[in-house]
Amino acid sequence: MDESRRDFLKTGAKSIAVAAAGTSLRTWGDQPKILGANSRVRVAVVGLRGRGENHIQSYGALPNVEIAALCDIDDNVMSERLAGVRKLGCQPKTYKDIRKLLDDKSIDAVSIATPHHWHASMAIWACQAGKDVYVEKPCSHNLWEGGQIVRAAAKYNRIVQHGTQSRSNPAVIEAVQKIQKEALIGDVYLSRGLCFKWRDTIGHTPASPVPAGVDYDLWTGPAPLQPFTKNHFHYNWHWFWDYGNGDLGNQGIHQIDIARWGLGLGFPNKISAIGGHFMFDDDQQTPNTLNCAFEYNLPNGKRALLEFEVRHWISNHEAGIGQRRDASAASAETAHGGLGPKEGSYNSVGNIFYGSKGYLAIDNVAGYKSWLGQEQQPGPSAPEAKENHFANFIECVISRKKEDLRAPIEEGHFSSGLAHLANTSYRLGRTLNFDPETQLVKGDDAANQMLRDGDRGYRAPFAVPEKV
């Protein structure tokens, strides 16, 4: 572990010295009740479509959790999820506005699965309200926001888990141990993350009336209020800078996290990203093809390199990643030459670590394999195993042992920060020379401003608090 990362985990990030508009501290009063070893944790799930449904299913399977509240800006989604939660034996309260939910002192923890631009405000408000927090990846919409969540978690002594659930996957944990503790592949000089996902064009969608039952003002929250279009709403918001971070911060954040975890490092010293939005004429703003490089200067005078790549269309596999499927999927891939438009069957999503003694590949859905020596003989491997990231969070909520979190918010800030740094390099068209101590780009005010507010500012009263 490098010194900057160790200091950060002890003390929290240093303040970023870039002025911007913010909001004052909001307080919710008394601290919550103390939970006992046999307590049922009362969880509120915020953001119920897509990943939020996974939150509900995961908490619903845990015996020591009660889904006590649901929050969403869409009445149609709410009614559907409410029916499902009631089948689990829970009778949750329902909210459209998280600020009203946070007034409920019976809620122990808040689980956030909203679009990215809302993550930081909600996580910080929840900490201020005395709630523990599970926040989906990336925890922030820009670099500064991540540091603010870290500070809030420390100040209010909250358990805050980041939604990079691969850190709870036994196969991935074993792979990282093989790399770090056992030096299976020797000195690791290159860590590579892959996000090759077949993604079709989103087309063009004109401004249209807001759907019935949707509070679009609340959905927009801290972002600038734009005319409603279908492409700005369900899922496709990922591809607009005001709300999302492209596939780098969508699927890719998981692979960035594993790539950095395997290296045992925090923030890099130099970042460069180049790419573009290719093939399609549509509304998408974020790149669909992107090459990122993160350079680390190590205390021993050596350097390490982390690479990350996004591809959006037809692609080969690398190191077998994407080829290891069940028998029926494998035969289908063979019939189609290993390529095709079927989401989930032809993707290559994973990590490759290269060292002096061999290389190791982690497949997002198929465990890991390794190859050793110049002859690349098969080495240790393990199949995919089920993770239970939510159970780890709940265990830590009850025990109050932050050190047992598998994805503490400090680690989430590092990995989310890498995505923001690469996107900033791409958007400005230049390499960034970064100081991990101050968390500032050296001699580049424009880059620091973009890392501070995403180049879009904040809309009152939803802004990320300046003082936590």
From TrEMBL:
GO terms for molecular function: nucleotide binding. Residues 41-163 form the Gfo/Idh/MocA-like oxidoreductase N-terminal domain. Pfam families: GFO_IDH_MocA, GFO_IDH_MocA_C2. This is Gfo/Idh/MocA family oxidoreductase. Residues 177-264, 382-456 form the Gfo/Idh/MocA-like oxidoreductase bacterial type C-terminal domain. NCBIfam families: TAT_signal_seq. Signal peptide: none annotated. InterPro entries: Gfo/Idh/MocA-like_OxRdtase_N (IPR000683), Gfo/Idh/MocA_oxidrdct_glycsds (IPR050463), Gfo/Idh/MocA_OxRdtase_bact_C (IPR043906), NAD(P)-bd_dom_sf (IPR036291), TAT_signal (IPR006311), TAT_signal_bac_arc (IPR019546). SUPFAM superfamilies: Glyceraldehyde-3-phosphate dehydrogenase-like, C-terminal domain, NAD(P)-binding Rossmann-fold domains.
